[in-house]
Write a structure and sequence with these properties.
Distance between the termini: 65 Å
Shape: globular
Strand content: 5-15%
Helix content: 25-40%
Largest sheet: 6 strands, mixed
Number of helices: 18
Order of helices and strands: EHEHEHEHEEHHEHHEHEHHHHHEHEHHH
Radius of gyration: 23 Å
Bound molecules: nicotinate mononucleotide, 5,6-dimethylbenzimidazole
């Protein structure tokens, strides 16, 4: 069990950390004096119960720390302060921990997936994004993943706190129901446009950078906007039964192999995210293996999917669990300080269900939405088009019921993406959409939570034809067009520096007055 204990100065974090490790036969306490390199210390002994107090001491180790934490097998409790300067480190470490606890005045609040009762009073917002967190289910571990008694935290006073720190599952019955989505702040958008006119450039000379700066300002509700410091990528992975029908250029085993590659930091998304300063986590929602890493599989719903050609990809209950999981992950990241979210996808065959979703929502024909995916040949293209045709026949019956549509023709990966994207909007957190697969989930998210699209921009245009239809349906114009068709969130992360630039322009450029430059005649 890996736990990040967050809170303000002298809030009771260290006492809580000690409580969490109480009863362990041996507890290793790492201090800066005894342990100059935290990453090395964690890697050298990943089994002994360990207390790290306090994360801020090792800021130089930040780059490799999330990986070392993710690989840690024993009980690990990391104490950190909930401050702006540590936001990125907290986010990165929190995203690989099983639990993040917030300590306020000596009491424990567990605002994310461990919540078993509706969150207590709104007087304890954990970030600027204070829309209510949804009651979400705890991850449903497979029997093999059930924590052994020795992994359960010892009973502590925390159990008397307003939100019990239990991991019992909530009923995900209402996972598909969303409160009304607020729009980004119009008045702030006006203020941002006015500010742009005062900056040392001809009006609109920075083109779409200006639109993006206005958009982020209005999402954050403040002008000039806050710098983007803690962007986070979640790659939702799943296999698809239809892949058995020869609809992909690659074998289905590649999905689990690529999940391991992403978890190890070797995929394109890891490389691009490192450059762009984003954290990456991969979640196995429905890969057709028993994932060796229970943390990656903590929200797993099932192995692969049923036959979308017959409208039986998964059950409604599975669709609800997946949507709830996506919502929980978005909540967890926003609560930990993420200021921009990106969904990615990994799943051999997933361009087939994505084309079915897009075709169903936009009313397009199979031959129009089908694409080459990973590079299918002509014979495969014919099989894929037939599968999409059959999927569309079933999907159309469910076109007015997004959850049923997900259950009939999609899968837990796409359902979790839809929950994640809609919840990001509910939490007033901007999103950069990726390619064809993620955008097909976005169509469903916007149906579940009408208006959510106002919180999203499109990172790029994939070469998949269905992507263009989905973007047009959402009214989004992509930032980049680089002939990419990888998925994983790669197109969105490639566009991230552009969005960050747009924000920096709003913050850092001198005005005509400040620089003594003559304004328009
Ligand atoms: O999102 C896209 O635009 C996109 C376009 C083509 C391929 N992909 C990726 O390729 C895989 C699916 O392709 P396929 O041919 O197996 O259906 C899956 O892992 C996706 O992430 C993704
Ligand atoms: C190798 C490989 C990597 C991928 N990443 C996303 N989709 C993918 C498909 C393949 C085949």
């Amino acid at each position: 069990m890996r736990t990040l204990v967050l809170g303000g100065a002298r809030a009771g974090k260290s006492a809580r950390a000690e409580q969490l490790l109480a009863g362990r036969p041996t507890v290793r306490r790492l201090s800066l004096e005894s342990t100059p390199n935290l990453v090395t210390a964690l890697r050298e002994d990943p089994d002994t119960a360990t207390l790290v107090d306090h994360l801020g001491h090792w800021s130089a180790d930040a780059a490799d720390l999330p990986d070392a934490v993710a690989q840690f097998r024993g009980d690990l409790v990391i104490v950190s302060t909930d401050t702006e300067s540590l936001a990125a480190a907290n986010l990165a470490v929190g995203s690989v921990c099983d639990d993040v606890e917030l300590i306020v005045a000596g009491r424990v609040f567990v605002p994310t997936e461990s919540v078993v009762a509706p969150a207590a009073p709104a007087e304890t917002p954990t970030s600027a994004n204070v829309a209510p967190t949804t009651p979400v289910p705890a991850p449903v571990p497979s029997p093999a993943e059930q924590p052994s008694p020795s992994e359960q935290p010892a009973p502590t006073e925390a159990s008397a706190s307003p939100v019990p720190a239990s991991s019992a599952a909530l009923d995900p019955t209402d996972a598909e129901l969303f409160d009304v989505i607020d729009l980004p702040d119009d008045d702030v958008a006006d203020a941002a446009r006015a500010r742009l006119l005062t900056l040392t450039k001809p009006p609109n000379a920075l083109g779409r950078l200006e639109d993006l700066g206005v958009w982020i300002s209005s999402c954050q509700g403040v002008c000039p906007p806050r710098r983007i410091t803690a962007p986070a990528v979640v790659v939702f992975a799943g296999d698809h039964g239809v892949a058995r029908e020869g609809v992909s250029a690659f074998p289905a085993e590649v999905t689990s192999q690529m999940v391991a590659n992403i978890a190890a930091g070797g995929a394109a998304i890891n490389v691009l995210a490192r450059r762009a300063g984003a954290s990456v986590q991969v979640l196995d929602m429905s890969v057709d293996t028993d994932d060796p890493d229970p943390h990656v599989a903590r929200y797993k719903v099932r192995r692969s999917t049923g036959d979308l050609r017959r409208g039986e990809a998964m059950t409604l209950a599975e669709a609800r669990r997946a949507v709830a999981a996506g919502r929980a992950v978005a909540d967890q990241l926003v609560d930990a300080g993420a200021d921009l979210l990106i969904a990615g996808d990994m799943g051999i065959g997933n361009t087939t269900p994505a084309a079915v979703l897009t075709g169903t929502v936009t009313g397009k024909e199979p031959v129009v939405v089908v694409g080459r995916g990973t590079g299918i040949d002509d014979a495969g293209w014919i099989r894929k088009t037939a599968a999409i045709r059959d999927g569309l026949r079933h999907g159309r019956r469910h076109r007015h019921d997004p959850l049923s549509l997900l259950a009939a023709v999609a899968g837990p990966d796409l359902a979790a993406m839809a929950g994640f994207l809609a919840q990001s909007a509910l939490r007033k957190t901007p999103v950069i959409l990726d390619g064809m697969v993620v955008t097909s989930a976005a169509l469903i998210a916007n149906a579940l939570a009408p208006g959510a699209v106002a919180w999203w921009c499109a990172g790029h245009r994939s070469t998949e034809p269905a992507h263009g239809f989905a973007l047009a349906e959402l009214g989004l114009e992509p930032i980049l067009e680089l002939s990419m068709r990888l998925g994983e969130g790669s197109g969105a992360v490639t566009a991230l520096p552009v969005v960050a630039d747009a924000v920096d322009i709003m913050i850092d450029m001198a005005t005509f007055g400040e620089a003594g430059v003559a304004d328009q005649a």
